[in-house]
């Protein structure tokens, strides 16, 4: 047992278990639902380029910094930061950004579970459709063959109009998430990741190949990689940073918490780079999976959040074996979403457990229950509460419903702020020897890491936060 070391004796059983769990945390709705949506809305290649810059210059050093905080602190995000602060001889108040991260994780999970609920619903719809096609002896049928391309998008509007259905899916998804987290690090989180992530990768590669052969792959490539810089604005850059942080699961306590279960002998730097780059690779691959299919049937790449739920089923309708591929596609998103929601709940559960002394199952059910209830408000803001405004006085959110307000507040404010504090803490406050020993870096690589986390990340995040929130400063 290389792993078992951390709080309550919990730990990953191997380095690979950690990598799969952390990649599972990183790869999620952000990669498959949000990344292609944002790239589609913001001019493709230019957005991808800025996104990539954020990943390399800010995201990767952040992943390493968080995992090292966790491994040194061996506790939840809040208490791990405090431990690093104490061992560095600086104020315990730095624990605050660990707390921000935990708050961010809980806030993300409120709306994340709602969207994952839509995915679950589509797994059901496409599953029933595929079984129907199979039993009628026509497994190669297109998806929802009995419907017309005009009526397929109403599946989503019907779902949104049905509170009970929305809430049932949300309950189901949260229930599964809580059940897994309650089972523990090895028996729950690790087991889920080692089953779901390999299955996810197989599906991703299969559907991408399918899209490459049946769809417009060259157009998708051009779309994702030809930059149109006229589309870039401070708010787009802010969005790209928020998305990079969100997608890599940084600044939201999850990686600090998972780092707490990593064995002392694991080399952190290569592991962190592998996690970060896999996440980016999956986002790009998801674009290359989705856009050839979208273009094949002449759909709008800039459809926004409905791209995956309304546009793609129309594409699957006319494509060969669309009913099977449609089902596999939503199963793939479901697996990705589940491993991410597990990490979000674990970040909050580990803290609740440490703070109260409750058992793991009790902490998971109570933390998950509270998050679920706030999530109900997010779900209802899609219909009966669509007029409710949480921050009507803040122009950025004056028009936003509860769902969009929490989403925007986390992505545009809380995550960048937490990232800013993390980079200042690791770059300037934490003991240099401690950081050096945990990363295992030396020489030029250590210099590059120090430069990125101490200078590039805080300055870039500060400027992006400033101009993203106050675009008027640029005149
Ligand atoms: N990275 C996940 C995604 O891309 O969907 C979302 C996420 C998970 C964010 C865990 C933050 C986190 F701590």
UniProtKB/TrEMBL annotation:
Pfam families: SNF
Keyword terms: Membrane, Transmembrane, Transmembrane helix, Transport
Residue ranges that the Swiss-Prot or TrEMBL entry lists as coiled coil: none
Residue spans crossing the bilayer: 16-33, 45-64, 94-112, 119-144, 164-182, 194-213, 240-261, 282-304, 324-352, 364-386, 406-428, 448-470
Membrane topology of the entry: Multi-pass membrane protein
Record has Ribosomal protein as a keyword: no
Main location: membrane
Subcellular location: Membrane
PANTHER family for this protein: TRANSPORTER
Highest taxon of source: Bacteria
Cellular-component GO terms for this entry: membrane
Classification via NCBIfam families: Na_transp (NF037979)
InterPro entries: Na/ntran_symport (IPR000175), SNS_sf (IPR037272), YocR/YhdH-like (IPR047218)
Signal peptide limits: none
Protein name as annotated: Neurotransmitter:Na+ symporter, NSS family
